[in-house]
UniProtKB/TrEMBL annotation:
Enzyme class: ligase
This protein's record includes keyword Cell inner membrane: no
GO biological process: methionyl-tRNA aminoacylation
Name by which UniProt lists this protein: Methionine--tRNA ligase
Annotated catalysed reactions: tRNA(Met) + L-methionine + ATP = L-methionyl-tRNA(Met) + AMP + diphosphate
Organism annotation: Flexistipes sinusarabici
Residue positions of motif 'KMSKS' region: 297-301
PROSITE patterns reported for this sequence: TRBD (PS50886)
Domain TRNA-binding: 540-640
Amino acid sequence: MNQKTFYVSTPIYYVNDVPHIGHAYTTVAADTIARYKRLAGYDVFFLTGTDEHGQKIEHAASDKNLSPKELADNVVTRFKNLWEKLNISNDHFIRTTEEYHQKTVQAVFTKMKENGDIYLGEYEGWYCTPCETYWTETQLLDGNCCPSCRRPTTKLKEPSYFFRMSKYQDKLLEHIERNPDFIKPVSRRNEIISFIKEGLKDLSVSRVSFKWGVPVPGDEKHVIYVWIDALTNYISALGYPDRSEMFDKYWPGDYHIVGKDILRFHTVYWPTMLLSIGVDLPKSVFAHGWWTVEGQKMSKSLGNAIDPYWLADKFGVDPIRYFLLREVPFGLDGDFSFKALIHRINSDLANDLGNLLNRTLGMVNRYFDGVIPEYTDPESLDEELADTIKETFEKMDAQISELAFNKALSSIWELVGFLNRYVDTTTPWFLAKDEDKRGRLGSVLYCVLDGLRALSLMLYPFIPETSVNMRKQLNTEKDIYKTNFEELKKARTLESGIRLGEIKQLYPRLDEKEILADVKNLQDKEKEEQKAEELIDFETFSKMKIKVGQIYAAEKIKKSDKLLKLQVDLGSENRQIVAGIAKTYAPEDLIGKKVAVVANLKPAKLMGVDSEGMVLAASGDDRHFLIEIDEDVKAGSPVK
Ligand code: MSP
């Protein structure tokens, strides 16, 4: 019989940033399901990788004086090392700069074109480089800022190939409606359905404004839009279209796991691309929530983007994996707090699980010289335990398949609780005092050891190192994959007469005060370092040429309630400058004012109006107040 297959993927991560806890979250979740399915006998393909093209990467590289490929090579190592550290069991790591992937991207583009779905047009829009997104004028904030990251956008007009995405609107809707599992969780599904019902537009799928990407076949001035390139990774990694063996085996994929921010790309762009090239759609896309840190958005500038390397070194890999999956329902947003992490480690891992293992093995050492006793004297409580083990397997099976990781862990911890109560109720330490009860003592300890065996199996997908560690101490089946999962799910399958391994504490208890103080020290140190990085030297400062300018004309800019167009006399020349001060000043109030002007700023267009320089103003909440200069100072005088 052919082995059942299972294909799970993470998003491919951008290489303009080093990995943080948010990236680790998606990857740990995908790893958990991959491990579980392997255990359950599936032939699994688990894919992760990096997204290395696009203007964002090109810019990040030039900021660091590197070529885009050099930057990618550096950051990829960080990702790969982190996945190794976190015990991620991916079967392949894809990089979009690899040749096989680029060939597939071109093949997909060509196929879309052959099917009549690509045409040449002209794109005009407000482009946000950090977000790699074009916005329409009505979507912009404050005149020209990106509604997603609030940074200024640039108006771009360029020849562009378009994908007839609109053509697939009805087919896509029909698919989503017929396949309730296609988009999960259900709240996200509804969001996407309403988005599609508003009407799908054609998608601009090539750029001529930069070079770092896969060239459009036959028109190499254009590079293929980075999302078309990136999404194709899910099939290029399987050898589509030339080497079809892996593709035939694993496609359609079972789960694309993604963050909620990139759901639309995966449930609108990706499926319509697949419809265009005649490839089946993936079975399910699951959007998980976002992590904040101590209540705040994670960001480089706040210095709170938690480094997963540091976390894993400080707390251990499994506690981090456990915390991420246990603390928050997959699909909802969550908050990372050190207090909550320490609490989970002390209470769930060290206390409930660690102590159970430790005290049970201690008793087997004491009363049975470390050898697993026979099960000879049954009692009804043992049946209850056996039923609980069976039910826990059934529950977790369903819960993991739904990616309800926190529920699965909570089911497992109900079994941990049951086992702890079983020990407390059967009181082996009293049984040990009565020679007549030796048979029952052995049976009780056998049952708990067998429960621990079952636990080690259940925990394997989530916290593999702990699982291996438990199994070593129980001296049970060495290679977890060589076992028959169905057999192992049954209670009382542990072999008697075997000597236990060396007893080791699973997790040390953490001193909350001490750890929180360490964390604070580290954060303070990082802030200091960041501050030091932010200081500029005199040479940098003196690159800025500030001059006194006198405003001699001012007018409003159409459609903008924030911007004014100023004409400024800089002594030796006149300049046109656009300034965001319309909420503070009427144009007529400005005439004659002497202000500080940054004279060597690169010219820019704001709301379509040329601006050559910037006037300095102090920012209030919503208003900006000009730095005014004494009227005796001549226009053009330097400000130092
Ligand atoms: N390169 C694209 C994905 C292309 S997939 C064909 C991308 N990369 S990313 O590096 O910016 O983000 C990758 C994933 O990390 C996203 O799913 C995103 O949601 C996730 N996270 C980034 N920050 C996160 C949190 N703060 N919390 C949880 N996950 C977050 O998007």
